[in-house]
Amino acid sequence: MRVIQITDCHLLADPEGASRKGFPLRQLQAVVRRAAQLRPDVLLVTGDVSQDETSATYRLASEAFARLGCPWFWIPGNHDQPELMEEWQPALDEIDLEHWRILLLDTRISGQPGGAVGQTQLQHLAAQLEDDDRPTLIAMHHPPIAIGSVWMDAIGLDDRDAFWQTLAAYPQVRAILCGHIHQAFAAWQGLVAVYGCPATSDQFLPGSHEFSVDEAARPGLRVVDLEGERLSTWIERVEL
């Protein structure tokens, strides 16, 4: 089973619209072309699909994702409008992958760059994990740990301690896939791996004290292969 994660597309309603350092739709299309070559079984999009919060951006994204010919799923990021996303693809809280499953969390706080899972969603997460002990991935927009960038860590997950306390009783959780940070990242919280993913749009400079774009880094995606109870993952970059 192959899951491909893409994130932080930051699309504009104008297909030719520019970001700080590139053209978001062209970059997304390049990443999708590379993803197609990797033959995914599932595409997972971990938020910030839109930059200008318009319905047109979700249409452009849906058209791009559909070209992969596999099921695709998304969660909102801090720049997204969930109501507009629902017009194109309903949000789910679980993906059944036979021997594995992915639980999807909405960490968006309206009008805020940082995020939180929230008590209600944490209770639901615990109930999902209580009911099924299959190996589990959790997908969320905001990273649940510090990544070593001062400005980014200030707008991470507000209730990270409560999140990890909830997971402590459930060893079937193997890894967290997050967006938001616009860079490749891997770390461990106890026995749980936490993986960040390059954006399809601009990349952020790792380890920066203040906001900084990494002009040398290329857009990319994360590949996650699930075989039995084994997980392997790596980053793919694309040339523009």
Main sheet specs: 6 strands, mixed
Neighbour order of strands in the largest sheet: 4-5-6-7-9-8
The percentage helix is 10-25%
Element string (H = helix, E = strand): EHEHEHEEHEHHEEEEE
Q: How far from one another are the termini? A: 28 Å
List the domain count as a whole number: 1
CATH architecture: 4-Layer Sandwich
How many beta-strand segments?
A: 11
Mean pLDDT: 96
Gyration radius from CA atoms, angstroms: 16 Å
Helix-strand layout with pairing:
Elements: E1 2-6, H1 24-37, E2 42-45, H2 55-66, E3 72-74, H3 82-86, E4 94-97, E5 100-104, H4 119-131, E6 136-140, H5 150-153, H6 160-167, E7 173-178, E8 185-189, E9 192-196, E10 220-227, E11 230-237
Parallel strand pairs: 1-2, 2-3, 5-6, 6-7, 7-9
Antiparallel strand pairs: 1-10, 4-5, 8-9, 10-11
Helix pairs in contact: 1-2, 4-6
In short:
InterPro entries: Calcineurin-like_PHP, CNP_phosphodiesterase-III, GpdQ/CpdA-like, Metallo-depent_PP-like. This protein has 240 residues and is an alpha/beta fold.
What does this structure look like?
With 240 residues, this protein is of the alpha/beta class. It has a single domain (2-237), classed as Purple Acid Phosphatase, chain A, domain 2 (4-Layer Sandwich), CATH 3.60.21. The chain contains six helices and eleven strands. The chain has helices at 24-37, 55-66, 82-86, 119-131, 150-153, 160-167, and strands spanning 2-6, 42-45, 72-74, 94-97, 100-104, 136-140, 173-178, 185-189, 192-196, 220-227, 230-237. Strands 4-5-6-7-9-8 form a six-stranded mixed β-sheet, covered by helices on one side. It has a five-stranded mixed β-sheet with strand order 3-2-1-10-11, with helices on one face. Helix 1 links the parallel strand 1 (2-6) and strand 2 (42-45). Helix 1 (24-37) packs parallel to helix 2 (55-66). The longest helix has 14 residues, at 24-37. The protein is globular and about 45 Å long. The protein starts with a strand and ends with a strand.
